[in-house]
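Hi F.,

I've been meaning to write this up properly since the lab meeting, where we talked about keeping a consistent format for the predictions we share between groups. The idea is simple: the sequence comes first, exactly as it goes in, then the structure tokens exactly as they come out, then a line or two of notes. No screenshots and no reformatting. I'm using this chain as the first example so we have something concrete to point to.
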Amino acid sequence: MKAKRLTLYTHRDAVQKKTFTKWVNSHLSRVSCRIADLYNDLRDGYMLTRLLEVLSGELLPRPTRGRMRIHCLENVDKALQFLKEQRVHLENVGSHDIVDGNHRLTLGLIWTIILRFQIQVIKIETEDNRETRSAKDALLLWCQMKTAGYSEVNIQNFTTCWRDGLAFNALIHRHRPDLIEFNKLTRSNATHNLQQAFNIAEQSLGLTKLLDPEDVNTENPDEKSIITYVVSYYHYFSKMKALIVEGKRVGKVLENCVEAEKIVNRYEGLASDLLDWIEKTIAVISNQKFANSLTGVQQQLQAFTTYCTIEKPIKFQEKGNLEVLLFTIQSKLRANNQKPYVPHDGKLISDINKAWERLEKAEHERGVALRKELIRQEKLELLAQRFDHKTTMRQAWLNENQRLVSQDNFGYDLPAVEAAMKKHEAIEADIASYEDRIGVVVELAGEMEAEGYYDIRRILARKENILGQWGLLKELVVGRKARLEQNLALQKTFQDMVYMIDWMEDTQLLSQDFGKHLLEVDDLLQTHSLQEADISVQAERVETLNSAALKFTTLEGYQPCDPQVICNRVNHVSTCLEELKQLADKRHEDLEESRQLWAFFQELEESAVWIREKSSILGAQGYGKDVTSVLKLLQKHKTLAGELLAHRSLLQNTIKRGKQILSEQSFGAAGIQDHILEVKADWKNLEDQAALRLHHLQEALNASQFSTETDDLLAWLQDAYRLVSSEDFGHDEYSTRSLLKKHRDVSDAVDKHRSHVVALRQHLGALPTQYRDQEVRGAVLAEQLYTEVVEVAVLRQQWLHDALAVYRMFSEVNACELWIDEKEQWLDKMEVPERLEDVEVVAHRFESLDQEMNSLMGRILDVNQIVQQLLDGGHPSSTEVRGCQDHLNSRWNQIVELVEQRKDHLDSVLRLQNYLLECTEIKSQIQDKRKAIDATQYAGSDLGGVLALQRRLSTMEGALSVLEPKLMHLQEEAEHLASAQPARAMEVLVPFEGISVEWEELKRTLQGCEDSLMVAGRLQSFIQDLDSFLTWLVQTQTSAASDQLPNTLEEAEKLINKHAALKEEIGRYEEDYERLQAVNELLETEEAPLPHAALQQWLQKLDVGWNKLLEMWESRREVLVQAHIFHLFLRDVKQAESFLNNQESALALVEVPTTVETVEAALRKHKDFTTTMELNLHRIKAVIEAGESLISQNNIYSDRIRQRVDALANEGMYIVPSLLLLLIQSQETERERKLACYRTSVSLATLLLQNKRPLQI
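Output, unedited:
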């Protein structure tokens, strides 16, 4: 019974899979997609997403590209989420079920989709009670209603009532009686009935054949499959009924549409005619080209008025008729419930109105433009009349003024020329004022030219005539003014020459007064210099006048005066100027000689007075009493020496000038030599007196400096001795350090003054005798005092160092003892707390205490080092220092021991608290793990549950492996604490005992799950290997199913090698296949619950795929071998065809030889050709036979092989006659060769006979 039920379920699932697969493909065909296996092809979620998009008409989120499991799960989740949004209830269906290929849940998902998108929309209303049914009942009711008139059809369900096939035929016959003869059908022939209904539905109605007769004609037909197929009937016939109703409605409206169409055509014709007239009229009246005359514009205005009053009103009436006609059309269409007519191609009333508006706009613009043009033409006529009147007046005025400016009556003196210039300026002013009137004429002509006046050429000619005369008049005026300016400039130049000659005659330069002393001579020279400057200025003016006058002699054309007259006047002025310059130079020389003489006498007198004054100063001064006074006298003497040096050069220059005057023998040179000798003698006395005074001042300065230095050194040494002999050594470290620093500064200063003492002794030896005896005592005293200061300074420095070391040691000792007192008080008062947090705070404080103690230890070591140095140096306070050191070391040892005791106590308390806290944490973790293991128990047999159990237990084992080392460490810690603190041993051991009990319970619980974990591990490894193998199997099947065919021999060989490599790969995977089968058998022997049904399905799929792969490889190998043989055949065919083509070409080039040599060569060629032909004919025959063999073996390229064999045979047939012809030609060639040989022999014999001569003895 159980086996029968399993068989029934298996058959049902197979029918549903086939039906649902066809149903899915019927909808996926809309998007060019297809599935082969319902369970496998929906696993990646891509096809499922496409199916839902087709059914719903909505776009789903884009699927993720990728073949990994996570990608498949994500895609399936998107599809399931979309179904949930469509309010589709999915019970126990998850994304992992579809990805894993769960048959039952995959079929359930497809059935849910069919219900939602195909069956749920069906609703049938009955006629009796208007009751509304839905889904399956509604579909059943529809079938009953459609088959109500068929006596042999009684539909009560979707299973057994459809087995005989009459129900399907009845549904088709009810809607399409032309397709089926229902009366001939019998219930006994069920298979025929079903096959006929399915075929007609597929061929005539376009319904996919979802079922086969054997699927329905069975004991228990599948309800879901039949419902799925019947739903397609329902949807098709519902659409057909809707189309029939729509056809009747269209027939009723058709007549009204025909009548409306006629009116529409009439409307469109009239609208087109009116729009064409509007566009043409707009084009005509938009033309803004008018006649360029007043008469022509008046005629155009009259024609425009005729259009507006006669032609336009007619078209306006047609426009109104169009509006009425369109209203009529709309009324008819509205009465027929038809879509309102909308004119196209710009023929709407609004379009016509817009075109009419453009016409009126163009009409308005045309009228405005015509009126403007008429006004413009009238304005141009008035401008032309005004222009003619003004040009006549300007012509007469220009002629009169041209005659006036052509006369040159200027006069012959300056007043007459200036009067003529004023008259000419009046004429120029008059002409300039008349320029605006000429401009008016030009403006009138320009305005008429800009407006396009029709007689503009005449206007422009008269304008150019006026402008030409105006230009000529201005040229005449300019020329006359230039001539006037030349005359005026020449007369002014002549007038200036007269003034210049009069000034020269008035200048007096013949005076004999040269002065009686230096000041008078300087006054005379200054007056003469002014006169020379005036002469220079006047000379430049004369040059300017002469140049200006001579320019008039070189003028070309008009000359205002005779050139000879101008030259005579220029020469007279130049002669007068030269005479005046000569007189001025003579008087300047005389005055300079007088000035040099009187200047010499004055300088010589001043030098004598200066010498006497300096001599008296040198004799009256002393030598000073101290360094300051001596230095002041020396500074004054240096100043005097500088004055002497500067005055010496002045005196020498003066004497040199006196000698020059004597040599020139000028007037007043008597007595110069005596004055010179007297001054020289005075100067020599002054220099000797200055040198002697300088020597005495230097000796006084040296003596004063030595005395001052000796006094300063003694005073400084006395101060230094007072400092270094002080009894103050300080009262503490700071004061002693300050005294030591000051002492070092004093010692450095004493060392620096050693050089001063030595220099003092050297300076004493360099003093003059009269000063040396006075300074010996002070120098000796200074040397003795310096020696005493040095000795006392060394002794005081040693005492200060010793005092500083003692004070430093006492300071460090006091600081260390103060810190020790503070820490002892803290340690005595400290109590170790029981709470862990408080203990950690105290431990942190002890860490800080360690750092402070390390720092203090360094300071104590420094104190010990200082004490040792003092003891080694024999310090006076050695006993006191040693006692202080021993007391400090004793206090340090006590504080160190106390700290260690407190730290040991604190560590023991902290360790115990940490131990108790760790016990609590580990116990809590063990309890949590035990609860997790209890919650992990599994009692099912599906694959998902087994995998979940394996994952959880694997995670749990990792966690327990981490806990076990912690327990061992905790046990060691408990034993140590119990031995270290016996009083608290129970407090330490009781928590660990509780943890041990919990740990044993946890291990026993985990031991119960180890078998399941082991089986789950094996199962996971098996599934992973199976999944990897199936993935490889699918990829390899894809490669083996390739339909690629080679196009060349190389490609064929490459594909065969690749296919052979694929076979090797399949061979390598055969071991994996056998291992999977063996693992399956091993898993079957396990007693643990396993998903055997799912594994069997996977293994069945594996067996089918493996066998299919082998078949596909063999099929592909056969195809590739045939393709390789075909390409080998093609290679041989091409070689044979190439050979035949070469031979044919050779035959076509054969020529009949004419000589013996050519005959022999042709014979050799013929033998080679025939030999080659015989060899290759056998090869060609073999190629043809091979082609025939391939054809007989049904090669996949049989048609192409037949074509190439026939073509090769035809070429061979063509070459045979050529061979026969070649054979005949070869025989003829042989005869020709023999004949040629005979002729050659005869010719040689004849030649020998002719050349034969008698022998000479």
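Notes:
The CA atoms of residues 867 and 881 lie 7 Å apart.
The first helix runs from residue 2 to 28.

If this format works for you, I'll send the rest the same way.

G.
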